[in-house]
Amino acid sequence: MAIPGEQPFNATSSGAPGQQQEPAVRILIVDDDASLRATFTQVLAKPCRNFDACGTVADGIAFLSERAYDLILLDYRLPDGTGLVLLDWLVEQLREEAVIIISGENDVDAVIGALRRGADDYVRKPYHIAQLQRAVESALHKAALEKANRAMEQRLKASEKLHRYLVESSPDLIFTLDAEGRFSYINPRVRQLLGFERGALMRRPFTTLVMPEDVDRICGLLSLPSTMPGESFSVELRLRRNRGEPSPVEADSVTVSLTGIPMISQQGERRVVGLYGVARDISERKRAEEIISFQAYHDQLTHLPNRVLFKDRLELAIAQAQRRTGALAVMFVDVDRFKLVNDTYGHAEGDLLLRAIASRLSSGLRRGDTLARLGGDEFTVLLPDINQPEDAETIARKIVATLGEPIKLSQGDFRATVSIGIALYPRDGNTAEDLTRHADIAMYQVKRSGKNAFRFFDPKLNTHHRERIALENDLHQALERGELELFYQPQISLSQQRVIGLEALLRWNHPQLGLVPPSSFIPVAEEVGLIGDISRWVLDTACAQLARWRRSGHTDVKLSINLSPHDFDHRDVVRSIVGCLSQHGLPAGQVELEITESMMMNDSAGVATKVRQLREAGIGVAIDDFGTGYSALAYLQKFPVSTLKIDRSFIRELDVALTNPIISAITGIARGFNLQIIAEGVERQEQADALRALGCDVMQGYLFARPGTAHEAEAWLRQVPSHSTH
C-alpha cells in the first residue's frame, strides 16, 4: 500500500543539485545502553546530522572538551554518576549546548533538578519514537533560535544604527510616551497599520488612537502616580484607523496586543518618566477565534445554524409563543435522491449541491425564520409567529417552487426536490424534541408517498412506526444470526511511512439491504436498548482480531474502537473494557477508544471520571470528529484524552485553500496538551500535503485505503512501506 507524500531519509544525503546545503548539526548521545545509542542514531538520522556516542559522564565530558555540540541526549542514570554532573559541568564551562534528559526516573525531584540545571526537556521512559523526535526537533529549533537571538544582541550592541533600523522596520507598532501619556517617539509602522503620519501624532495623547470603548481601560493603566513606578502590563485593545486614508482593509479599527513597560528615571528618586510600548496586530488571530466561535453554532459546509443553535432558537420561540398564546411551525426538509449525486459524482459535487439547495431554501423564507442544517441532506426550518396552518403551507409551496429550476453542477444540471414534514405548535407538541420528531415523521410519510411534496404531521398515520418496528426486529435478529461484521481502515503515519493503527468500523450485513452503515441503525439500537449488546460484541470481536494479528507478528499496531455515549451510562463500563483486554491478552496501550464531543459536553453519567479511569489503565481515548461544534479547551482539561481526530468537514475545505485556521488551531491545541492528532477523510494527495504542512502526520481516508475486511487489513500490515518521491 503506497504512502503518498513521503521521501526516504538518508543521514548522509547532500540534497538535490542547486539546493542550499543545510547547516550541520552535531548531536552527542550519552547513555550506557549501547543498543539505545544505536537506536537513537537511526531514528533521529537526517541529512547533515552527525552523531557521537558514549556511555559515561567522564566520556561525555571528554567529547565535550574536544568539540562543541548542538544537542546532548543525556541519560539520567550513568555508571559513574547522574546526568546532573554533566549538566553542572556545562554550567561551569558556560557551554550553550541544548540538553534533553532521557530517563525512567519517576521522581519529581529528579525532573526539577534536571530542569533547574538547564536541561531543555525531560523525556520519561518508556516513550514513543515520535515523542523523542518531536523533543529533539523542538530542542534544536529552540537552540537555533537562542543562537540567533544571541547574534542579534551582539549586533544591536555593536551598532546603534542597526538598532534604529530594526525598530523602525519592525512589523510591530513601537512607541514611547512621556509622563503625560503623549507620543515622544513612534516608528513608521503606524503609517501602514493605521494610516497616520508620524509627525501628526508627536506630542499628542496616546488615547487619540484608542477606540472610545477602550479609552477608560487604557487610561487606568497609564494614570499610575509618577512617584510609584508601575509594573509592565499587557492588554488587548482596538486602535482606530485614519478614515481619510485609503486602505485595503475596510475595518475602522485594528485589534492589537499592547505591551507597556514603564520607563524609570535613573537619576535621583525612582519615578515613572514615560512608557515604552509595543503593539502587535492580532486581527488575524481574532478573526480565527471568531471563526471557531462561529463554527460552534453553524454548519461547516453551508454556514447555516447547526442543530444546537436551531434547538436554542426553537426553545426560545416556544417560550415566546406560550407567553403570547401564539403558534409556530417546524419543518423537517430532506433532499430527495441526494445519495445518487454522492455515489455518482462524489462528495465534492454533493457538497456543491447542498450549498445550492441551502441558498434556494433561504430564498423561500421570511425574515425572522430560521433555516438550519442538521447534517447530511437534512434541514430544519423554524417558522415563528404563524397565524394559521395555511401560512406554513404557503411557505412550503414556495420552498418547493424555488427548486423548480435545475441546479448547475460541474458534471451537469441536477433537478433537486425535497420532502417536507411540518409540525405545528401547540397542536403537534409542546417541546422542541416533540415538534422536530413529529416533523421528521411527517417527512418520512412524504418519502414513502413519492417525495417532492410536503405533509403535516398526522398522529393517525403509523406507517413510520411500523417501519421502525420492522427495523428493530431485524436488528434483534442481526445479533442472533451473526449478521454484524467489522471492517477496518488503516491509519497512516507519513513520517514513519507505515500503518500505525486501524479503526474498527461496524457494518450490518442485512439479508435484503446488504451492508448497512452504523449511522442507519446505531440510533435505533440506542433507543431500543440494544447498543450495550452491540458494543460488547464489537469490543470482543475487535480485541480477538487484534490478538490474532499480534500472534502473527504485528505487535505494534494500535486498534481504535468506537463507543456509543450510552455505553458510558453503565457503571461498570471501565471494568468491562479492561476485562475484555485482559481476556485476550492485549496490552492496554494497543487499544484506543473513540468518544464524541457531545459526551464531553454532557457529563451526567460521570464520563470524565470514566475516561480518567481508562487512561489510568493505560487505554487510549480519542475525541472523534473534533472541532465540529462542541469542543472547548475547558473540557480538554477535564477529560484526559490521548488523541484528537480532525473532522472530515475541515479536510474537504482544504480543496479550496491549502490552509485552514481551524486545523492550525487544532494542531496547536494538540501540541499544547501533548495529544496525538489524526486527520480522517483524506481523499486527495493535495489534502495530505496541506495537512502535513499544517503539522498533522497521521491520516486515514480513501487516499490510502477504503475500509476492508480483517484479511485485507492484515495484508496492509504485511506490506513494506514504499518511498514516494512526491
Number of strands: 28
CATH class of the largest domain: Alpha Beta
Q: Whole-number radius of gyration?
A: 31 Å
Structural class: alpha/beta
Question: Oligomerization state of this entry?
Answer: single chain
Spans of 5+ residues with little confidence (pLDDT < 50)? 1-18, 722-726
How large a portion of the residues is in β-strands, by DSSP E?
15-25%
Give the termini separation. Answer: 15 Å
Average pLDDT metric: 84
| Helix content range | 40-55%
Q: What kind of sheet is the major sheet?
A: 8 strands, mixed, barrel
Shape: globular
The structural domain count equals 4
- The main sheet orders its strands as 20-21-23-24-25-26-27-28
Domain EAL: 468-721
Domain PAC: 233-294
InterPro entries: Biofilm_reg_signaling, CheY-like_superfamily, EAL_dom, EAL_sf, GGDEF_dom, Nucleotide_cyclase, PAS, PAS-assoc_C
Region (Disordered): 1-20
Summary tags:
disordered N terminus, 42% helix, eight-stranded mixed β-barrel, single chain, Alpha-Beta Plaits, 726 residues, Beta-Lactamase, 26 helices, 4 domains, Rossmann fold, disordered C terminus, alpha/beta, five-stranded parallel β-sheet
How do you describe this structure in short?
It is built from 26 helices and 28 strands.
What does this structure look like?
By secondary structure, the protein is an alpha/beta fold. The longest helix is centred in the first third of the chain and has 30 residues, at 129-158. The strands form six sheets. Strands 20-21-23-24-25-26-27-28 form an eight-stranded mixed barrel, surrounded by five helices. It has a five-stranded parallel sheet with strand order 2-1-3-6-7, with helices on both faces. It has a five-stranded antiparallel sheet with strand order 9-8-12-11-10, with helices on both faces. The protein is built from 26 helices and 28 strands. It has four domains: 25-158, Response regulator (Rossmann fold); 164-281, 2-Layer Sandwich (Beta-Lactamase); 291-461, Alpha-Beta Plaits, CATH 3.30.70.270; 483-718, TIM Barrel (Alpha-Beta Barrel), CATH 3.20.20.450.
